[in-house]
């Protein structure tokens, strides 16, 4: 039976309203769970730069979030190392909610730079490590992660890298503990000069300096992207490092 145009239009309008309502309701219902999942993922990545990944992986979501609350304090600084507490609308700026991707699209001078302090388990006033977010480009797509610096702000205490589309078995290895462990104990300064830590070309290289890590066979471009990402962001935080060192010197 052929329906009139009016009937078809009315039916379509009703279905649009019904489907839209269902989708809106579903989105509202799922929003808290999605928000909690994002929070857990972010805090897990931050902790993984300083904690044993196997141990962290065995913890329940509640244990991970509790550990984060006990050991991590955070703040946001600008490229001059000054604390940023509110945005242009006067709303509080929260380090965990800073969108690194959106910031990456801005000029370095306009970005926000979160700092996550990993506090001592024995002394909540003592900083064991400073954890900094990183963002850059690999061979095929974005790469990102966190690097943890010892309280001396010279030695790498840990690193956690991730990627969107690097080649399995090659560039994708940046996300493995084997590659990330190579950075532990390396130095980002040579005297007073920030030199970062560079992944060299090829694998199985002998006589690496304290500013170099072994490379990944067949993943030279991903390695270069990782080098650029680490060097760029360490440079962006240099003013904050200098401020911390000056404060430490003044307190002695």
The first-to-last residue Cα distance is 91 Å
- By DSSP (H or I, 4+ residues per run), the number of helices equals 7
Look at the helices and sheets and give the structural class.
alpha+beta
- What level of helicity do the residues show? 40-55%
Quick check: average pLDDT? 89
Strand order of the largest sheet: 1-2-3-4-5
- Please write the string of helix (H) and strand (E) elements: HHHEHEEEEHEEEEHH
* Rg, Å, rounded: 23 Å
Give the CA-based shape.
Answer: globular
Beta-strand percentage? 15-25%
Major sheet description = 5 strands, antiparallel
Which blocks of ≥5 consecutive residues have pLDDT under 50?
A: none
Number of strands: 9
How many domains make up the 3D coordinates? 1
């Amino acid at each position: 039976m052929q329906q009139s145009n009016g009937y078809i239009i009315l039916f379509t309008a009703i279905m649009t309203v019904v489907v839209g309502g269902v989708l809106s309701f579903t989105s509202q219902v799922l929003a808290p769970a999605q928000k909690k999942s994002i929070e857990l993922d972010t805090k897990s990545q931050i902790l993984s730069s300083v904690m044993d990944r196997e141990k962290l992986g065995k913890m329940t979501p509640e244990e991970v979030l509790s550990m984060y609350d006990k050991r991590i304090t955070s703040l946001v600084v600008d490229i001059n190392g000054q604390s940023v507490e509110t945005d242009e609308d006067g709303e509080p700026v929260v380090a965990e909610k800073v969108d690194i991707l959106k910031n990456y699209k801005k000029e370095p001078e306009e970005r926000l730079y979160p700092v996550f302090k990993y506090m001592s388990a024995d002394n909540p006033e003592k900083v064991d490590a400073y954890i900094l977010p990183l963002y850059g480009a690999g061979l095929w797509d974005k790469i990102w992660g966190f690097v943890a610096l010892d309280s001396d702000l010279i030695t790498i205490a840990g690193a956690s890298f991730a990627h969107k589309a690097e080649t399995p078995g090659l560039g994708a290895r940046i996300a493995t503990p084997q590659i990330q462990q190579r950075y532990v104990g390396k130095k980002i300064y040579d005297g007073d000069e920030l030199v970062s830590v560079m992944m060299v070309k090829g694998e199985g290289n002998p006589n690496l300096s304290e500013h170099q890590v072994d490379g990944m066979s067949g993943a030279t471009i991903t390695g270069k992207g990782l080098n650029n990402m680490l060097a760029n962001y360490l440079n962006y935080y240099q003013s904050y490092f200098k401020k911390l060192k000056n404060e430490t010197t003044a307190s002695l």
